[in-house]
Known about the structure:
It comes from Croceibacterium salegens. The chain is 46% helix and 21% strand.
Amino acid sequence: MTRSQEGAASTFSGYLILLVLLVAVVLAWFLIRSAVPGEYATKAAKLAFAGTILGSIGIVGLVLAGFYMIQPNQAAVITLFGSYKGTDRTQGLRWIWPWMGKRKLSVRAHNVHSDRVKINDLRGNPIDVACNVVWRVADTAQAVFDVDDYKAFVEIQIEAGLRTVGARHPYDDMSEDDLTTLRGSAEVVASELRAELNERLHVAGIEVDEAGLTHLAYAPEIAGAMLRRQQAEAVIAARAKLVMGAVSMVQMALDKLSEDDIVHLDDERRASMVSNLMVVLCGERDVNPVVNAGSLYT
């Protein structure tokens, strides 16, 4: 497929043409008024006068048909009998030859919030996602001539790009690995989605300025099970950190007792002390101390 490319159209300032038209109308009025046939003029003279008036009106109407207005952040695609002749982006009143076609389109930023779609993440879990995309027309020729309906094309490609990016990453990951997840790496996912959409929409002359997820959740059929799984993984992760912290604290306590020569413990009493400290540090309930009034070995 041959891609179109935007170019500048050869148009005229509408204000200048309007001024010339007004001057021409005033002059024509005086000329016609002075040329009005008298009562005894011939029929041919009267017909010629009527033809002059109709011709003048036709010329004025033809010139008026060439005027058009371009608002800020708006463009007009100019064609001549189906051939692309350029794009006019100059704001204000413009004029072009009346037999040339013009199609206006907005080059402002468009904000699109996609519908929620169900996809499978990297691990095959069904999830519901939606995104928000800010896009604009960068090349008017491609938008008008290279796709049938560029707005519908954008909506379809947004859904396709969302499915592609969503399938690259897992929804969440409770392991210690530094993985990119849909829930925990919002900036990375947004950057990937924007790049994916720009690649897909380049053929239509569309540029995506911003893209990001606005909704992310497990599908209803597995939401309950995945919530219990997340809770279990969170409990396991918390317990692992608690045990590692308790072991380091016990090690620090034993080393400190030995360094300061406070007490010397044999292997049996050392194991008993470690067991008691681990129970105190890892237990979920408050521990009641027991005072030993006897010797260390009773």
